[in-house]
Amino acid sequence: MTTAIDILNSHNIRPSVQRIAILKYLLEHRIHPTVDDIYLALNPTMPTLSKTTVYNVLRNLVENGAVLALTIDEKNVRYDADTNSHAHFRCQCCGELYDIEQPTMALGNTTGFEIENVHVYYWGKCPKCVQIRNKE
Amino acid sequence: MTTAIDILNSHNIRPSVQRIAILKYLLEHRIHPTVDDIYLALNPTMPTLSKTTVYNVLRNLVENGAVLALTIDEKNVRYDADTNSHAHFRCQCCGELYDIEQPTMALGNTTGFEIENVHVYYWGKCPKCVQIRNKE
DNA sequence: TTTCATTTTTGTAATGATTACACTTTTAAT
DNA sequence: ATTAAAAGTGTAATCATTACAAAAATGAAA
Hints:
2 copies of one chain form a homodimer.
Chain A lengths: L3 H7 L6 H12 L6 H8 L8 H13 L4 E3 L7 E3 L6 E5 L5 E4 L3 E3 L7 E12 L1 H9 L1
Parallel strand pairs in A: 3-6
Antiparallel strand pairs in A: 1-2, 3-4
The first copy, chain A, binds a DNA duplex (30 and 30 nucleotides) through helix 2 and helix 4.
């Protein structure tokens, strides 16, 4: 099992208390939290934590490829510690954000472009909301 | 050629002067503009136009499927009048946003999910920026 | 272990996109 | 022409994010 410290080290990010806490939270809560989610979750046990630090740390983690920033939610950026290839699904009923298997893709003509990164975002109804609708 | 009015009518949106102007601008300027881009472009010839109206009209267009909202840019939502299936590429050097051919995708296991919409976002270097880097 | 430079964190203030809201104007049907 | 509904407008509020300067922590050198 890879710990937060290992991940920080392997991305050349010095493992400060705050960085460890934030990455640890992301690793243990795969809910694609927003900055606010993270701040509110950690604040009780780290009262001195500043929201600016959460922003700073996350920018650092994203820039160094340790964490993904998801822009599927128009309001807030969401963060994901799972950097393996996978897609995301956002339910238009309940707003929930799910991990979903990455489709196998045959790229079209992308001549001249150097592609470094792909994000696939789905929108629709999640299983829970489909069921609720069918019961009505 | 489909006009702005045709598109509005076919999506059951009443064709007001402002709606026509905004959709026409989107149809004729395939640059994925932001709200501000659109407002600044139209303001000279429509001095009474309000930015709130631009927001309202775009929300209406998106909700009725006449226009796409792109969240590839973390700062602003960008709008696209091309609702045909295509992907988007954002250059990490110059920030430019390109249309790009939609990959042919074989969906993985999405049992239970009702998928209504897919967006594929690419990041990397655009041909211009690749060239510039190679010349250095 | 003291010193000092560098990095990191912190809190407050600013920014900037978006929305709320109340009022005015336009539209379309009678 | 009258009138009710829809659409547009301008200002003020909201809220995520960033800027910035001061404080704290870190780590290397003496």
